[in-house]
Write a structure and sequence with these properties.
The chain is an alpha/beta fold. The chain is about 40% helix and about 20% strand. It contains eight helices and seven strands; from the N terminus they run H-H-H-E-H-E-H-E-H-E-H-E-H-E-E. It starts with a helix and ends with a strand. Bound molecules: S-adenosylmethionine.
C-alpha cells in the first residue's frame, strides 16, 4: 500500500455502493483473486468520466468486466466502450456480467492481445483510454496510444507504483518483477516528457497517471 492504510480505510468507508451487480462482482473478484480497480481509483475514474463525457472509450484489461461496467454507468447513450482481454477463461464471465448490466450495446468486448488489437484501430479514434493490462507492456501501449488518442483525449494508467517497488533500488526488487520495474519507470519518464501530453502522476490506489493529449 503506497498511501497510509488508515487514510485509505477512511476513504473506503465513505464510498457508496455501485449497485448490486457491481457489489456481487467485487465479492467474486475478491474470492477468486481477480484483480480489479481499487475503490479510490473507481471514484476517480467516475469523476473524470462524468467531467469529460467521452464518446469512445478504450480499456486495456477487462478481467471480469468490473471497471468497464462501472465506466459504462457514467456515460450517456451514444458513448461506447471497447475493452480488450487476453485471458480466455475470463471472457465468458465478463460477457455474462455485461449482459446482466444491460450494456451489450455499449460495451464491446474483444478477446485478444491489447497491443495487437490497438494496432488495428484507427488514428485519433479514442477520447478516453484506461490502461490496466500487462504492466510490462505500458511503454508499447503508449506508442499506440499516442496515435489513437484524439486531441484533448485523456489517458489513465493504473498500478504505476507497483506497490511502492518503483521507488526502491532495482536490486531489491524480485528478479521476476524487474522487467515491470524497468518498463514502468520508462513509461513514467516518457509520459511526463512526451511533448504532446500533459501528465500528472498521482498516489491514488497503487498509483495512477492521468495524461491529456494537447489540442
Ligand atoms: C488488473 S486486471 C483488469 C481489471 C479491470 N480493468 C477492472 O478493474 O475490472 C488486468 C487484466 O489484463 C489482462 N491482460 C494481461 N495481459 C494482457 C494482454 N497482453 N492483452 C489483454 N489483456 C491482458 C489480464 O488477464 C487481467 O484480466
Amino acid at each position: 500500500m503506497i498511501v497510509n492504510e488508515r487514510i485509505v480505510s477512511y476513504i473506503h468507508s465513505l464510498e457508496r455502493s455501485n449497485g448490486p451487480l457491481l457489489d456481487e462482482m467485487e465479492a467474486y473478484a475478491k474470492e477468486n483473486r481477480v484483480p480489479i480497480i481499487r475503490k479510490e481509483v473507481e471514484s476517480f475514474l467516475k469523476v473524470l468520466l462524468t467531467m469529460k463525457q467521452p464518446e469512445q472509450i478504450l480499456e486495456l484489461g477487462t478481467a471480469i468486466g468490473y471497471s468497464a461496467i462501472l465506466m459504462g454507468g457514467c456515460l450517456d447513450e451514444k458513448s461506447k466502450i471497447i475493452t480488450i482481454e487476453n485471458y480466455e477463461k475470463r471472457i465468458p464471465i465478463a460477457r455474462e456480467n455485461i449482459r446482466r448490466a444491460g450494456m451489450e450495446d455499449k460495451i464491446h468486448l474483444i478477446f485478444g492481445d491489447a497491443l495487437e488489437e490497438m494496432k488495428k484501430m484507427g488514428n485519433e479514434s479514442v477520447d478516453f483510454l484506461f490502461m490496466d493490462a500487462a504492466k510490462a507492456q505500458y511503454p508499447f501501449y503508449l506508442d499506440e496510444a499516442l496515435r489513437l488518442l484524439k486531441p484533448g483525449a485523456v489517458l489513465v494508467a493504473d498500478n504505476v507504483f507497483q506497490e511502492g517497488d518503483l521507488v526502491e533500488s532495482r536490486y531489491v526488487v524480485n528478479r521476476r518483477d524487474r522487467t515491470i520495474y524497468t518498463r514502468m519507470r520508462e513509461y513514467l519518464y516518457r509520459v511526463k516528457n512526451e511533448s504532446s501530453l500533459v501528465t500528472s502522476i498521482l498516489p491514488v490506489g497503487d498509483g495512477l497517471t492521468v495524461s491529456v493529449k494537447e489540442r
